[in-house]
Description:
The chain is mainly alpha-helical. The protein folds into 4 domains: about 1-35 and about 205-275, SET domain (Beta-clip-like, Beta Complex), CATH 2.170.270; about 35-200, no CATH class; about 285-370, no CATH class; about 375-530, no CATH class. The protein is about 45% helix and about 10% strand. The strands form 6 sheets. Strands 3-11-10 form a 3-stranded antiparallel beta sheet, with no helix packed on it. α2 crosses α5, α12 packs across α18 and α15 (about 455-470) packs across α18. S-adenosylmethionine binds next to β2, α6 and β9.
Amino acid sequence: MSLPDVVIKKNFPGRGNGLVVAKDFSAYSEIFRKIPEVSVPDTDHRSQICANCFLFAADTGDRVQPGSVVKVSSCGKCRSTYYCSQECQLQDWKAYHKRECKILASLARKVPPSPVVLLMRILTMDGDKRDRFYKAMENLMSHIDDRGKMEDFATLVLMSKGAKEYSGTKLPLDAVVEMLCKVMTNSASIPNPSYDTVGMMFDPVISLINHSCDPNAVLVFNKNVLLVRVVRPIKKGEEILITYTDNTMPMPHRKEQLRTRYFFDCQCTACCPPVSPHHKPDPRNNFACPECGTAFQPYPMESHPSTQLYNDIYECSACHYGFLDAPNVVANIEDKIASTGIADVSRIDSDDIASELVSKLKQLYKLRMIPLHRSPFIEVLANLIPYYIKQEDWSTALRFIGIEYFLQDEVRSWQPEFAPIRLAHIMRFVVILLYLITTGNYSKDLEHYSINLRECLWGLVTELERSIPRIYGENSTFEIHVREKYRKEMLKQMGPVLARIHMNSSLEQLGWYKEMAKIKAYAIDFLGQP
Length: 530
Ligand SMILES: C[S@@+](CC[C@H](N)C(=O)[O-])C[C@H]1O[C@@H](n2cnc3c(N)ncnc32)[C@H](O)[C@@H]1O
């Protein structure tokens, strides 16, 4: 492997092989960057991004801004693979597309799911490249036995049959199924900076990086280049650990995701914290006292050395509201949430559904026991915000982005600081503010709060520009996009005199915090309304 600062370490107890660093790394530095061996665009985004360089416009994704503007044109033969330039088309043609183009053309634009397209790219490799790649894949985990017990295994077999037939490989079906299992265990999604999945990648070296819910590194993409960046200092000889899940979820949700998707029981430092009176409980796991809102953690953690520590908390430390059986109280609350069906709504496609969700959200908020950073608030907000953006109801979208930014991100950004998801939220906040400012289309309710939206926008763009290089490195396409599109547009809106004043003043002097507090009130007051 030609990555000088990284070595493969075999057989970590309980988790197989992994990658360790060969020197010290400070926070926000880069460990390595690499173009993944195989990547494919997400089936839903094929016509929006370049299949070679994954060029994004930050507004490629449905979640930031509808009506994206990426200029790509399709391959004239298969008509289902898109490129931003002839150069990209040629590169991809030589690397992969010349072997898949005919297959895709024969499918008449009905492109199979991304794992199948990715597997076809592997199965149609030839020569030295094929030998090297297959050798590197040999020792990767497939979890084929675990997958065999899953309900959707039949689908995996069907997908493997498809990939075998389309690619014309001579490998027996069993071997293709095992390969697909390796792809499922070791691939990663390619997010754009708005955190929409725009593709899928597979690389035998990158896939050696193991998981922790308290990670020291993060994977981000700058176009098609994957960067492994440090989020807290790593000492020489330490393992590189990233998160495989939505790391903002509470521990039981993370564990469940890791068990069902990656087949292991996470024993990381966040899931098994040290038993010590000085240990600060992980805020991701908090519930709130229904009387006064103070945080408490009632999990029965059977497999866990600190069970006692958490189970002993039966009384609110602030108001002394009593819990006779805290785990049971929580179970009842979880049942109540399940009975609302609120967490199951993944796509909102009408005003009625959206209003119903909003009213359930308010009911749950009134219970006070579930902090806003927990499920199901996370899922509901993740669906409501793009819905209102799509409806161009910017005032309502602003309420929900306010809840996300002020109330969820406090915990979301707990670790790692400047998580990519936090930057995606700020970006979305910026987009909504800019729309409100340029259209002047405020609701009466929003006008009532007399918020200086320009000040808010200025501070957020400043925050974004300061934070992006920490996670994405200098001069990323994300940074350039924010500078070229959002800063320029914002300055245009302000005019030269105001712009000069802003450039020479601190956020404090500009009253940014005061204006942001008004948005916070606008968002939270709404949750309390009947
Ligand atoms: C992408 S692979 C990582 C490389 C893997 N260790 C190997 O040797 O091929 C993902 C698999 O590694 C294992 N793994 C990763 N992180 C782990 C952890 N923190 N604890 C236990 N197993 C882990 C799980 O079996 C998981 O399905």
